[in-house]
Design goal:
about 190 residues, mainly alpha, Arp2/3 complex 21 kDa subunit ARPC3, single chain, about 80% helix, globular
Length: about 190
C-alpha cells in the first residue's frame, strides 16, 4: 500500500475534519455523527483503500487524543471508507440521487458493523446522541440489541446520506486541476 503525496495530504486533512466535526457532534449530543465526511471524500477521490485507511486512522487518533470510545469504532470507519470507495468505483457518486443511494448502502452496512460493538463493548451506551433513542426503546420493553439496532439504523441512514452528500458536493466543487491528479476519481466519474 503506497499513496502519493497529494493523497497523503488529503488523508491528513480529512482526518482533522473528521475528528473536529465528530467531536463537536459528541459534545452537543447531536443524534448524528457527521464524523466521516473526510473519510467519504477520500474514498470518492482516492478509492476504497485510501478511504478505509483514513477512517481507521481517524478513529485511532481521535481515541488517543480526546475520546477513547471513538477508537473502538475503527472497524465501522474502515467499512465506511471501503464501501464509499467501492460505490464511487461503481459510479454511485455521479449525481446527488445516486449519492443518496450510496449513503443508504453505507448506512446499512456500517450499522451492521456498529451494533455488536455498541452492545457487547459498551452495553448499549456510548455517550452519543443515539443513546436517548436506545434508552427509550429499552424503556418501552424492547430487547437491548434490537433497541440499539433500530436507533443506530435510523440515525445512520440520515447521517450517512448527509455525510455522502456533503463529501460529494465538496468533491464535485473541487477544481479539475486538483481532481485530475486522482485517477480513481476520474475513472469513477467518467
Amino acid at each position: 500500500m503506497k499513496f502519493d503525496t497529494r493523497t497523503l495530504v488529503l488523508m491528513a486533512i480529512a482526518i482533522v475534519i473528521n475528528v473536529v466535526v465528530g467531536q463537536l457532534a459528541v459534545w452537543v449530543k447531536l443524534p448524528l455523527y457527521i464524523d466521516a465526511v473526510g473519510t467519504v471524500l477520500v474514498a470518492i477521490l482516492a478509492g476504497p483503500l485510501a478511504g478505509a485507511v483514513t477512517g481507521v486512522l481517524t478513529n485511532l487518533i481521535w481515541g488517543l487524543v480526546s475520546d477513547p470510545v471513538a477508537a473502538a469504532f475503527f472497524p465501522v470507519s474502515l467499512v465506511v471508507g471501503l464501501v464509499a470507495g467501492l460505490m464511487a468505483r461503481l459510479g454511485w457518486f455521479r449525481t446527488l440521487g445516486k449519492t443518496a443511494v450510496s449513503g443508504v448502502v453505507v448506512g446499512v452496512i456500517s450499522t451492521i458493523v456498529a451494533v455488536p460493538i455498541i452492545v457487547y463493548m459498551f452495553g448499549g451506551v456510548t455517550g452519543a446522541g443515539t443513546d436517548f433513542a436506545t434508552a427509550y426503546f429499552v424503556a418501552v420493553g424492547q430487547e437491548l440489541i434490537k433497541s440499539v439496532a433500530v436507533a443506530n439504523l435510523a440515525t445512520n441512514l440520515i447521517d450517512k446520506i448527509l455525510t455522502c452528500a456533503i463529501a460529494w458536493i465538496i468533491a464535485s466543487r473541487m477544481p479539475g486541476r486538483f481532481t485530475a491528479s486522482f485517477p480513481f476519481y476520474q475513472k469513477a466519474n467518467a
